[in-house]
Design a protein that fits this description.
single chain
Protein backbone atom coordinates (compact mmCIF):
# COMPACT_ATOMS: atom_id res chain seq x y z
CA UNK A 1 0.00 0.00 0.00
CA UNK A 2 2.78 2.47 0.87
CA UNK A 3 4.67 1.41 -2.24
CA UNK A 4 1.71 2.28 -4.47
CA UNK A 5 1.15 5.63 -2.77
CA UNK A 6 4.81 6.58 -3.11
CA UNK A 7 4.83 5.52 -6.76
CA UNK A 8 1.75 7.65 -7.46
CA UNK A 9 3.31 10.67 -5.76
CA UNK A 10 6.58 10.34 -7.67
CA UNK A 11 4.86 9.86 -11.03
CA UNK A 12 2.72 12.99 -10.52
CA UNK A 13 5.40 15.29 -9.04
CA UNK A 14 5.88 17.18 -12.29
CA UNK A 15 2.22 18.31 -12.21
CA UNK A 16 2.57 20.18 -8.90
CA UNK A 17 4.39 23.56 -9.02
CA UNK A 18 6.15 23.09 -5.65
CA UNK A 19 7.23 19.54 -6.42
CA UNK A 20 8.30 20.55 -9.93
CA UNK A 21 10.75 22.96 -8.30
CA UNK A 22 12.18 20.07 -6.29
CA UNK A 23 12.53 17.99 -9.44
CA UNK A 24 14.26 20.87 -11.22
CA UNK A 25 16.64 21.31 -8.28
CA UNK A 26 17.54 17.62 -8.63
CA UNK A 27 18.00 17.97 -12.39
CA UNK A 28 14.97 15.86 -13.33
CA UNK A 29 12.01 16.65 -15.56
CA UNK A 30 9.79 13.91 -14.16
CA UNK A 31 9.77 10.30 -13.00
CA UNK A 32 8.49 7.56 -15.30
CA UNK A 33 7.86 3.84 -15.00
CA UNK A 34 10.84 2.03 -16.55
CA UNK A 35 10.41 -0.61 -19.22
CA UNK A 36 11.53 -3.89 -17.65
CA UNK A 37 12.59 -5.23 -21.05
CA UNK A 38 15.43 -2.69 -21.13
CA UNK A 39 16.96 -4.17 -17.98
CA UNK A 40 16.60 -7.79 -19.07
CA UNK A 41 19.27 -7.16 -21.70
CA UNK A 42 21.78 -6.21 -18.99
CA UNK A 43 21.49 -9.48 -17.04
Amino acid sequence: MIKEKLKAILLKMHMDPERRTTLNDLGFDKFTVPKISIYRKIK
